[in-house]
Specification:
Mean pLDDT: 85
Distance between the termini: 21 Å
Helix content: 10-25%
Strand order of the largest sheet: 1-2
Low-confidence stretches: none
Structural class: alpha+beta
Shape: extended
Number of helices: 1
Number of strands: 2
């Protein structure tokens, strides 16, 4: 995720739209996902779901681990 430390960059996951190929024909969903990321991160539009869960922290609680994520929706 080093590339995402560069200001005004984003990553779009495409495994669910790839048709089992690397170079697939339907590019519109990729553009839409990247456009949402640009609108949210560069242009500051609030309320856009532009990312899936992204790992934030891990803490130990006795014999358990608590994982926290950004962009987890109503989860934690």
């Amino acid at each position: 995720m080093t590339a995402q430390t560069v200001p005004n960059t984003a990553m779009a996951v495409t495994l669910d739209i790839g048709e089992g190929k690397v170079h697939y024909r339907n590019k519109k969903p990729v553009g839409h996902r990247l456009a949402l990321a640009a609108l949210a991160t560069v242009y500051g539009q609030a309320g856009l779901a532009y990312s899936g869960p992204v790992f934030r922290t891990m803490t130990r609680e006795g014999d358990k681990l608590r994982l926290d994520f950004d962009h987890a929706g109503s989860g934690s």
